[in-house]
Q: What sequence folds into this?
């Protein structure tokens, strides 16, 4: 190497070092993958209108417009959970945040693929409704399993879960496979008065299937169509879904069951082995933004988990639950559900969904 070349090389190195120290050359010198990782958040979520609302109210205004890059891995929760569990072996997750319900969140925490949360990184968590909190889960939206009915055809709707088993409703009730474990716990609740008596409720469901012939639909959208075309007059589903369908023009009303409704909570978890933990925390805090939650509540008609969400009194009265209803609400025993879910699904497919 000549003296001139050594001098030029030395100057070049000093120049690069100076730029690095100043931060000016960092984007140009970093490998492409490293650049992307710094501002990229990979999110596992449901698709359809659920994802559309997530993008509209949270991801675009609060993250993408502020410089983050969002990569979306969309699908149904069994496949998304299985993928995360499979990645545990290599201790490297392909996603940073996973959207799940509270029961699946518990299961994933037991499997050690989602992390305990540092609440200091999620300031908005301080305003989450107390009953919905868990140290590994960011609750986002919640609702409950209620009785939804066509008010033009049903003048005196069932006022309780127990009344749904009355033969007078034969052929008029619609259920969906998506809520199978809720129906099984509902039967246990009617049979024994608690949410951990599914075995005692199974004979009631078998009798219901044999004598009342409820129509069973694959998903929420098909159940909505069944209500619209008159196949069924009553549905057992989330309050939020009933409100959505009424907003779409169906003549529906909501009956809160006398036993107290079974709660359902949706939210997200921080993956244990995700590549961008800082970005994930920014995402989780954005989910709980009070204005974002108000927009989501109005669009989805789920109740917001953040008690400070800026809802109008009229909207809150519509989507949320009264103090009396909330006191009667039944929350899942997550350990019980996690232990039995696989066996319940097998029973449901063999003994009810046939």
A:
């Amino acid at each position: 190497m000549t003296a001139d070349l050594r001098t030029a090389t030395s100057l070049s190195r000093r120049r690069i070092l100076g730029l690095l120290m100043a931060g000016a050359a960092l984007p140009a010198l970093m490998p492409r993958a490293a650049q992307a990782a710094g501002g990229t958040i990979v999110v596992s979520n449901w698709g359809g209108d659920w994802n559309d609302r997530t993008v509209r109210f949270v991801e675009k205004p609060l993250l993408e417009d502020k410089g983050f890059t969002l990569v979306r891995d969309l699908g149904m929760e069994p496949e998304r959970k299985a993928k995360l569990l499979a990645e545990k072996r290599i201790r490297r997750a392909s996603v940073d945040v996973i959207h799940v319900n509270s029961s699946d969140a518990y299961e994933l925490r037991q499997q050690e693929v989602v992390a305990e949360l540092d609440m200091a990184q999620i300031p908005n968590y301080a305003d989450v409704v107390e009953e919905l909190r868990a140290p590994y889960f960011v609750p986002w939206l919640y609702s409950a399993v209620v009785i939804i009915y066509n008010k033009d055809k049903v003048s005196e709707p069932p006022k309780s879960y127990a009344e749904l088993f009355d033969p007078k409703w034969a052929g008029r009730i619609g259920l969906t496979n998506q809520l199978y474990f809720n129906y099984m716990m509902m039967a246990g609740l009617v049979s024994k008065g608690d949410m951990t008596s599914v075995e005692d409720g199974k004979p009631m469901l078998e009798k219901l299937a044999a004598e009342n012939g409820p129509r069973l639909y694959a998903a929420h959208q098909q159940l909505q169509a069944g209500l619209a075309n008159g196949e069924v007059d009553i549905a057992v589903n989330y309050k939020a879904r009933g409100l959505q369908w009424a907003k779409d023009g169906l003549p529906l009303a909501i009956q809160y069951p006398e036993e107290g409704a079974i709660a359902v909570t949706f939210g997200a978890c921080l993956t244990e082995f995700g590549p961008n933990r800082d970005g994930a925390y920014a995402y989780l805090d954005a989910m709980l933004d009070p204005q974002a939650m108000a927009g989501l509540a109005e669009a989805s008609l789920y109740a917001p988990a953040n008690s400070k969400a800026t809802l109008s009194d009229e909207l809150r009265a519509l989507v949320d639950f009264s103090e009396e209803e909330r006191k009667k609400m039944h929350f899942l025993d997550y350990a019980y559900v996690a232990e039995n879910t696989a066996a319940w699904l097998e029973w449901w497919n063999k003994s009810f969904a046939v």
Remarks:
- Confidence is low (pLDDT under 50) at residues 1-38.
